[in-house]
Design brief:
559 residues; alpha+beta; 7-stranded mixed sheet; 4-stranded antiparallel sheet; 20 helices; 58% helix; elongated
């Protein structure tokens, strides 16, 4: 089928000691013996043949490389935000713990001792975190194993996956506390410099904006994949591939299934509708190659069974009748009516006459663009797919149909496949990615809010006297809330903007794998940015509400 059909893949198992490079060196001399290279070149093809290890075909795939990069960025964002949150809380505790460090140093502790003390503290916290993680993984083991696409959860729990977060979250706080001079202890505790805190808060705000915006893009695209119009109705459809069919078998098969009360329609096709179909070369009047259409044979009932709309003309009735879809007419460049035109194969043999034009319908998945399709009418297919539509798809009906077809074809291992299940399985990788981004978004949101609450608590403690004096001098609760939220929002605005821009870049890269994709409108990014900003602002208001309404006399007395 190499002369016309481009749907075949070849596999070779090499003998021990033979390498692909050795075979590839000999192929150029062999190619002209089996393929008319000059003929292909005249038709616009440059043909090259080589073999490549299957593992390289996968790992060097553009889509695989893109997903590795995107998942790495997502993992780094989650890891980095978590580490920055721990560092933020450590830095926030600097004014209080600096005195403790000073006391240790006055009693002879060296910088190395202080460094080791904080490393040990982080190690203890990390062990507790690992235990909690192990419990969570065990509790949701099936979901996690499915989402991460790993055979066992043990692959997630190893030294390679835990050394980086341990080092990131431990070194900076330990180093920061160990270098504090004794003479600067009290100055550190009262300086009020907030550069460290705001920088770390900035990173967390950017991370949460990035992940949540990316989540919105993924959710919208997945919803489009699951609910977009396929051009046919896949509900309650099952099909079974059959061999060695003839007119008598086909008639008996159709008659037996139409007796079942829940079967509403049946039909035969040479391939299932998700296969991508075979290739058929379309030539002009001078026999120059124009494009390759996707070809399939249908019986007279298949079109109505799948509910594929006929835009003009009449349905297939038998041999010699041909239907084409809208994309075929457009790609062929016909400006007049397609009905009545004849189709020839690449050898000049008449294949039939076009009797109708159907609406475009997906013959593969939304990873591929809409393809031109040519449909030949035929009731004689030695190999075919028997397709059935039922009124309701229940396990009992499916079991009964499987028993029936096994009874009619006792020498074949046959069974029905649910079309909707196969459609959903096409986007299993997309579902895994959606779930991964969702979990990452929840984790980063919780981590960021914990860091924000810690920051606000520290700010209220640090500025309690200032707030009390402002209230004594006439400041109202809204004034205090505005004062406390101002610094946070000033940090949040540019961070969210950068996070949204980063999510657009990554989202655009991820969407390139789909032929049918959502438009990345400005509304998506503005609405997500406002949502993140509202979450941050609401957190600030809720945490600051008590101190904004507190009696200033109590704050001054405590001070």
């Amino acid at each position: 089928g190499w002369g016309a059909d481009d749907s075949y893949l070849g596999y070779i198992r090499l003998k021990p000691g033979v390498f692909p490079e050795q075979i590839n060196q000999k192929i150029p001399a062999l190619l002209p013996k089996y393929i008319d290279v000059e003929r292909e070149r005249k038709q616009g093809f440059d043909m090259e043949l080589y073999i490549k290890p299957v593992s390289e075909i996968y790992t060097q795939s553009t889509e695989v490389k893109r997903m590795v990069v995107i998942m790495s960025v997502l993992a780094f964002a989650l890891l980095f935000v978590a580490a920055m949150n721990y560092i933020l809380n450590s830095v926030s505790s600097l004014p209080i713990r600096a005195r403790s460090v000073g006391v240790h140093k006055c009693n002879g502790a060296s910088s190395k001792d202080i460094f080791n003390m904080f490393l040990f503290e982080t190690a203890a916290l990390f062990v507790v975190a690992l235990v909690c993680m192990a419990l969570l993984l065990f509790a949701f083991r099936e979901y996690v194993a499915d989402m991460a696409a790993v055979p066992t959860l043990g692959t997630l729990l190893n030294a390679q996956t835990i050394w980086l977060p341990a080092i990131m979250s431990a070194l900076l706080p330990a180093r920061l506390f160990s270098v504090i001079p004794v003479t600067q202890v009290f100055r550190v505790s009262t300086s009020g410099k907030q550069g460290w805190k705001r920088s770390l808060l900035f990173i967390q705000f950017g991370g949460i904006a990035f992940v949540i915006t990316l989540l919105v893009i993924v959710l919208l695209q997945y919803d489009r994949l699951m609910n977009n119009d396929l051009g046919y109705d896949p509900e309650n459809i099952v099909y079974a591939p059959l061999n060695n069919m003839d007119d008598q078998k086909a008639a008996k098969l159709t008659a037996e299934f139409k007796k079942l009360p829940y079967v509403t329609a049946t039909g035969l096709s040479s391939m299932d509708i998700l296969s991508g179909y075979g290739g058929f070369p379309i030539l002009d009047n001078e026999k120059n190659w124009l494009f390759t259409a996707r070809q399939v044979n249908y019986d007279a009932d298949y079109l109505s069974l799948m509910k594929i709309p006929l835009l003009e003309g009449q349905p297939l009735k038998g041999d010699g009748d041909i239907l084409v879809n809208e994309s075929f007419v457009s790609k062929r460049g016909w400006t007049d009516a397609a009905i009545g035109k004849y189709i020839y194969d690449d050898e000049g043999n008449l294949k039939g006459k076009i009797v109708g034009v159907t609406r475009d319908f997906m013959v593969n998945s939304f990873f591929t663009p809409q393809l031109p399709v040519i449909m030949f009418g035929s009731d004689r297919m030695s190999y075919c797919n028997f397709t059935v539509r039922v009124s309701e798809l229940t396990p009992e009906y499916l079991r009964e149909m499987n028993d029936k077809i096994a009874e009619l074809f006792p020498n074949e291992d046959v069974g029905f496949t649910v079309l909707k299940t196969i459609i959903e399985s096409q986007y299993e990788g997309t579902r895994h990615f959606r779930d991964g981004v969702f979990v990452a978004s929840i984790a980063i949101l919780l981590i960021t809010l914990m860091g924000l609450l810690g920051y606000i608590t520290d700010e209220m403690h640090r500025r309690s006297k200032e707030i009390a004096i402002r209230k004594v001098n006439g400041a109202t609760a809204p004034n205090i809330l505005r004062l406390l939220s101002k610094d946070v929002l000033i940090t949040a605005f540019p961070a969210i903007l950068l996070g949204v821009i980063a999510s657009r870049v990554v989202g655009e890269s991820w969407l390139r794998q789909f032929a049918d994709k959502i438009p990345l409108t400005v509304f998506i990014f503005i609405s997500t940015a406002l949502l993140v900003l509202a979450i941050i602002w609401g957190c600030v208001i809720l945490k600051s509400w008590n101190i904004a309404n507190e009696n200033p006399v109590r704050s001054i007395k405590n001070e």
